[in-house]
Amino acid sequence: MAHSRQKSYADNRKSDLEFEVGDWVYLKNSPMKGMIRFGKKGKLRPWYVGPYEILKRVGKVSYELKLPIELGPIHPVFHISMLKKCIGDRVSILLLECLGVNENLSYEEVLVEILDRRVKKLRNNEVASVKDLWRNYLVEGATWEAEADMKSHYPHLFPPTPSQS
């Protein structure tokens, strides 16, 4: 009786996963022996890697993924328990190759353009700020920075003032 009650609780929470061809999914980074690790090992390893596109459904609970060349030795068919649906906008996902990531997992931010300028009045001072659009970010990810700092680092983005001409 207790078993059937617990089973009914578990069945209520269970949701059947199902993907369609063309969906994007994350692949679970399994710590099983003999599996290829993605990046770091141990506590700091990512739980999921990807996203990867589903090419076709193989059977009831397995899918074939379109894997990159680096993952060539891995068989492209995975059980549904190893997959997690990629929710979100595909445009906002950036690949590490596009970012120019260094060996220590850092990359250089590059200022693309100045979107806006504002001056805040603080008692006796005026502080000028500019809204910066960075490479690999959407307009929503633009940040406000001090204008003086940005002029010193990126003088080519600021038009010359009449006194400099």
Helix content: 10-25%
> Please, how many domains?
2
- Strand content bin: 25-35%
Radius of gyration from the alpha-carbon trace, in angstroms: 25 Å
Order of helices and strands: HEEEEEHEEEH
Q: In the CATH scheme, what's the topology name of the largest domain?
A: SH3 type barrels
Overall 3D form: elongated
- CATH level 1 class label of the largest domain: Mainly Beta
Secondary structure: number of strands: 8
CATH architecture of the largest domain: Roll
User: Which blocks of ≥5 consecutive residues have pLDDT under 50?
Assistant: none
Q: Please state the average pLDDT score.
A: 77
Biggest sheet, open or closed, and with what strands and sense?
Answer: 5 strands, antiparallel
- In DSSP terms (H or I, runs of 4 or more residues), the helix count works out at 3
Secondary structure elements and pairings:
Elements (H helix, E strand, L loop, with lengths): L1 H12 L10 E5 L19 E11 L3 E5 L10 E3 L3 E3 L10 H4 L11 E12 L2 E10 L8 E4 H7 L12
Antiparallel strand pairs: 1-2, 1-5, 2-3, 3-4, 6-7, 7-8
